[in-house]
Amino acid sequence: MTYSPEQYQANKERMKAAQKRYYLKTREIRIAKQKEYEARNREHIRAQKRKSYAAKKQCEPNSETELS
After folding, report:
1. CA 39, CA 45: separation in Å to the nearest integer?
2. Which residues, 6 or more positions from 38, have their beta carbon under 8 angstroms from its beta carbon?
3. Which of 19, 27, 49, 67 has minimal CB crowding within 10 Å?
4. Which pTM value belongs to this model?
5. What is the pLDDT of residues 7-56, one digit of tens each?
6. Rounded CA separation 18/22 (Å)
7. What is the DSSP letter of 61?
């Protein structure tokens, strides 16, 4: 038995529908876990953002000195 394009498309759509149902079903749980993680690690996250911002700011060339 060969795998026809119609069967392939039907199976693809079926899988996509199942993924969407799973995503919608677990959405609230994922959001709750993310909020809990952010609440626990708020200071660490802020420190990482400050560190990356400082590094980015340090790498940017100063346009005033380049013009001279």
Report:
1. 10
2. 45
3. 67
4. 0.48
5. 999 999 999 999 999 999 999 999 999 999 999 999 998 998 888 877 87
6. 6
7. P
